[in-house]
Write a structure and sequence with these properties.
Helix content: 40-55%
Distance between the termini: 70 Å
Shape: globular
Order of helices and strands: HHEEHHH
Strand order of the largest sheet: 1-2
Number of strands: 2
Radius of gyration: 22 Å
Largest sheet: 2 strands, antiparallel
Length: 173
């Protein structure tokens, strides 16, 4: 016999208040408010009483903003990244296949500058990835004894590591 109760409809997206969004991202409420004032982060909804509500994609954008700033991007560059992402993704963070160039309010000069900056950051990261992994292993072996969370799978390159198996006090640098 089948159950006559219809299944629950798909719940709508979860929305976060400013404080909840800040807590989830590990930043202060003031940081979220500052980014909102600079229009780096915009609420997905505003309640009748004026409370800003942010969707799940805003949490991802906030975390991206934090990472971009940590990588040395200026606020203007980070803003351009958010503008580009918002123009090409929906509120849930899904890529919109129907976007057009007209949806992106950045001129070609700014897009080219952003692209150049992203390539420079990516190149620097690639240059340092193996070095950082080796240094992490060295610190783990010499000082922390592995008391920290592990590296993500596949981010611990072993080939060509001159410090692998080293039991002396040599520096990884």
């Amino acid at each position: 016999m089948t159950d006559p109760t219809p299944p629950d409809p798909q719940p709508g997206p979860t929305f976060y208040t400013t404080a909840e969004l800040a807590r989830e991202a590990g930043v202060t409420r003031r940081t979220v408010m500052h980014y909102a004032e600079l229009q780096l982060l915009t609420p997905d909804q505003v309640t009748a009483s004026g409370r800003a509500l942010y969707g799940p994609y805003s949490l991802r954008l906030l975390r991206d903003l934090i990472d971009l700033r940590a990588l040395g991007m200026t606020l203007e560059e980070a803003r351009d990244m958010v503008i580009l992402r918002r123009a090409t993704h929906d509120i849930h963070g899904h890529y919109r296949r129907d976007w057009t160039r007209a949806d992106i309010p950045l001129d070609d000069t700014r897009l080219k500058a952003l692209h150049t900056r992203l390539r420079a950051i990516n190149a620097a990261f690639e240059r340092q990835a193996n070095n950082m992994a080796r240094f992490d292993r060295w610190l783990t072996k010499r000082f922390t004894g592995g008391d920290l969370p592990g590296l993500p799978e596949g981010s611990d390159p072993q080939e060509g590591d001159p410090y692998q198996g080293d039991t002396g006090g040599n520096s990884p640098a």
